[in-house]
């Protein structure tokens, strides 16, 4: 799921589609009723609607963790970025 209002998120979706030859990813705007329902069903405490969210095998991942899980399943040189998995999340998404 992605923020349908965010241009960066929309470009990310197009980027993933081009590198997902098996079509394993399905996309849904976070502003949709279905997205809200899925988020509530998987994590009622998290109602954020301004990020990348991945639901994989019943687990919900957000922000950089979601992006790294997605990259792990893509093809091509982008997989190099999976090395960032070793950096703790608190350093990737530090808020000021």
Could you please describe the fold and organization of this structure?
The chain is mostly helical and 96 residues long. It has helices spanning 7-18, 33-42, 63-72, 89-92, and strands spanning 53-56, 59-62. Strand 1 and strand 2 form a beta hairpin. It is globular. Residues 91-96 have low confidence and may be disordered.
Helix amount, in percent?
A: 25-40%
- How many runs of DSSP E, i.e. beta strands? 2
* SSE string: HHEEHH
Number of helices: 4
Lateral arrangement of strands in the main beta sheet = 1-2
Q: Averaged pLDDT, please?
A: 78
Low-confidence stretches: 91-96
Strand content: 5-15%
The outline comes out as globular
What is the CA-atom radius of gyration, in angstroms? 13 Å
Structural class: mainly alpha
Q: Kindly, what is the distance between the CA atoms of the first and last residues, rounded to a whole number of angstroms? A: 25 Å
The major β-sheet equals: 2 strands, antiparallel
């Amino acid at each position: 799921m992605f923020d349908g209002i965010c241009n960066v998120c929309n470009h990310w979706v197009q980027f993933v589609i081009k590198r997902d030859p098996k079509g394993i990813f399905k996309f849904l705007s976070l502003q949709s009723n279905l997205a809200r329902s899925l988020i509530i069903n998987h994590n009622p405490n998290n109602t954020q609607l301004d990020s990348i969210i991945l639901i994989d095998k019943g687990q919900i991942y957000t922000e950089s963790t979601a992006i790294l899980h997605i990259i792990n399943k893509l093809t091509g040189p982008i997989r190099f970025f999976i090395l960032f998995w070793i950096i703790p999340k608190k350093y990737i998404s530090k808020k000021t």
